[in-house]
Design brief:
Helix content is 28%, strand content 22%. It is of the alpha/beta class. The protein has an 8-stranded mixed beta sheet with strand order 5-4-3-2-1-11-12-13, with helices on both faces. It has a 5-stranded antiparallel beta sheet with strand order 7-6-8-10-9, sandwiched between helices. α2 (54-57) links the parallel β2 and β3. α1 runs parallel beside α9 (253-260). It starts with 7 loop residues before the first strand and ends with a helix.
């Protein structure tokens, strides 16, 4: 296969690559393995930072990962791009949780940072446990010196989200994901910007890119890719950009879509 004829595929994780049981279906693993054997490339493209993606490296072979909503690119185990938040801004974020009565989760390439005694929001403890289970929680003091690329906020009726937006809104896109949860990414960085940068790095034509997703945070990569596959259960915000609707992960959705487009 000529290099210029290679296809690059980009997969969201939750609800796309993995289903309700939080495992990768055998059919998805087999389809991706076959596509790579044919010379195509496969990448995870996730809102999770790289420290939360390493667990997938032992579960499925990929050619790389686009992490942190476009703030990091790793190809063949080597970082080729990283956008770090400034130390001054990180310091302000560390001090913001009690100020605004919200729980901040600071995410970096190496680890995820939680305050030891956070503002009492139960959803934060649930996410902390999940993060700890995959070994991504930092052992450093929350008030320490470390590098992050993005952050998330969990709020309730007592939180001052407007105050947070006023202080950090010029530096970050603060996107509401529902249930009091906000994802905050440095302005100008998305799953879509990382996808385009990777295509350039790998010398792959844009028309040879295929994206797979299900949620609103996949919108940025759907907007820049004409081959956009939505899972059966997906956020309707993706509909205007969706080329093909496939099945659920458990019902071989990844494999069915790849066969539909003759990738395998």
């Amino acid at each position: 296969m000529r290099a210029e004829d290679r296809i690059a595929m980009f997969f969201d994780i939750d609800g796309t690559l993995i289903g309700d049981d939080h495992t990768i279906p055998d059919s998805a693993r087999q389809a991706i393995e076959e596509a790579r054997r044919l010379g195509h490339l496969a990448f995870i493209n996730s809102g999770r930072c790289y420290s939360m993606l390493r667990t997938f490296e032992s579960q499925i072979e990929m050619d790389g990962m686009l992490a942190g909503c476009g703030t990091e690119i790793v190809i063949d185990g080597k970082r080729t791009f990283y956008k770090a938040v400034s130390h001054e801004t990180t310091r302000r974020l560390i001090e913001a949780d009690y100020k605004y009565k919200a729980a901040f989760v600071l995410e970096g390439s190496d680890s995820v940072h939680y305050r030891e005694n956070p503002v009492g929001l139960p959803d934060v403890e649930r996410v902390r446990k999940m993060t700890a289970d995959i070994g991504a929680v930092s052992s450093e003091p929350y008030e320490g010196e470390y590098e992050i690329s993005k952050f998330c906020i969990q709020t309730d009726e007592n939180s001052d989200i407007e105050g947070i937006k006023a202080e950090f809104g010029e530096e970050f896109d603060i996107v509401y994901r529902g249930h009091g949860f906000y994802e905050c990414v440095p302005r100008g960085f998305t799953k879509g910007t990382a996808l385009l940068l990777l295509l350039e790095e790998c010398n792959i034509r844009p028309e040879n890119a295929y994206v797979f997703g299900d949620s609103s945070n996949d919108l940025a990569m759907f907007e820049v890719c004409r081959n956009a596959i939505s899972m059966k259960q997906h956020d309707k915000v993706l509909d205007p950009y969706t080329t093909y609707v496939t099945d659920t992960p458990e019902n071989d959705g990844i494999m069915k879509a790849m066969k539909h487009f003759s990738i395998i």
